[in-house]
Amino acid sequence: MFIKVSEKNIQEAAEIHSLSWKDSHKAFCSKDFIEKHDAENQIEYLRKEIKFGKEVYMLTENY
Q: What is the pLDDT of residue 62?
């Protein structure tokens, strides 16, 4: 199920975004650069994107 990201779930979205970004960029970015993209950094990134009008969603599993 896709869920819209909001302040209510932004921490979870940032953690997912951080992990997936690190995994997808590890082959061509330095380790130091990769580590800068932690969940706290990604929260700020997601907030900025939402503030500028983007709708952000995350995929979750139904249990």
A: 64
